[in-house]
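Hi W., the S-adenosylmethionine complex you wanted:
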Amino acid sequence: MHPKALLDACADLLEQVLRLDHPADAVVSRFFREHRSLGPRERATLAETTYEALRRKLYYDHLAPSGRGPKARRIAILAFQGPRDFLKSALDEQERRWVDECDAIDPKDLLERHRHNLPEWLVDPLKAQLGDEFWALSDAMLQPAPLDLRVNALTDKREDVVHELKLAGIKGNPTPYSPWGIRLADKPALTKLDAFARGAIEVQDEGSQLLALLLEARRGEMVVDFCAGAGGKTLAIGAAMRNTGRLYAFDVSAHRLDALKPRLARSKLSNVHPAAIAHERDDRVKRLAGKIDRVIVDAPCSGLGTLRRNPDLKWRQSPEAVTEMTAKQDAILGSAARLVKPGGRLVYATCSLLPPENETIAQAFSSAHPDFEQLPVADILDGLKLGSSGLTTGGEDGRSYLRLWPHRHHTDGFFAAVWRKR
Ligand SMILES: C[S@@+](CC[C@H](N)C(=O)[O-])C[C@H]1O[C@@H](n2cnc3c(N)ncnc32)[C@H](O)[C@@H]1O
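Structure:
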């Protein structure tokens, strides 16, 4: 594609994405469906430029007025993810000079907001938790996330899959925390690989794998994944159960559960039972009350731990939406807890970085449910021989909750709390 045409396409796509009225990934997918002739490299440039524009939106909004032409084109030029020579061949002389001036700006001379590129309402709660480390987090949030895979523990060994990928020209290393994980060096297409087709690998962030591990689901048990979505954790848990017992995958979104089905077919698991529920107090939930060995609530949340992948969330979320979310989280956790039988385990998890969606929900649950004893996450990680150092916070000794941060652990941001029903 001619550089000018690709830059125009970037500007068209950005014009749609920057309205922020739909999730960026949905807008990008629709754009690709409407422009079927785009090749894989062009698609990569379009997607990466879009995500870069969303990541550094405040910075680019600050620079854009000094350029000329439609705003979406100016942002597309500033955020363009491709060789500089290629970009410049799409520009006129004046635009080229402008790009050079912008490239020469020293980040040290910028206002804080143009460096961290976060909305103000998010800055204070993050600084309150991290102090000076806030800058390491905000830098990490401006980078794309690595591509992590989870090896299907039912069918394959991690070292064999690493070797198989290597033979296919794909470099990957075992992840530091999850025994199932492989972190790839690049972002290759995976769907044509035999390992993918036969269900030996799934794309899953290492942090998400750790949440599934915290459930410690065993052979023959009755387990519920209460907010299963497209089943990232369901598939990991089903394999950990060695395809025995019964694993219910509940969700209020039948559409999301539909996306689980092809993954389930590839995985060779036959112990998973997806079921759409109307709400958290659905009759199906009531019928299983007190009968379940382990329940995981991967609650709907602000998603702010995933800003590397979903940078539009920081512009589409608001303090009001977070407050609404916490009421939902509280209600879902309370209902899901009724499923757990005496001696059973309950895991509450989010991919949020905000205490009101995390520690506050967990503490309120503990206070309201004296029949649930909180288990220190660090004890579980140590028991699994995964090592807990630096992964947990809270309680007198900092061992209560799992707290993963992109800049420390190179995973998405995750929280988890665990209880045992007395
Ligand atoms: C964080 S996502 C789950 C991701 C999934 N566990 C995974 O690992 O791929 C949260 C899910 O909760 C679902 N949800 C929202 N409200 C719910 C409710 N009241 N009961 C059950 N699920 C709900 C959403 O549809 C969404 O799929």
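The pocket of S-adenosylmethionine is lined by residues 208, 226-233, 250-253, 256, 279-280, 298, 300, 332 (CB under 6 Å).

W.
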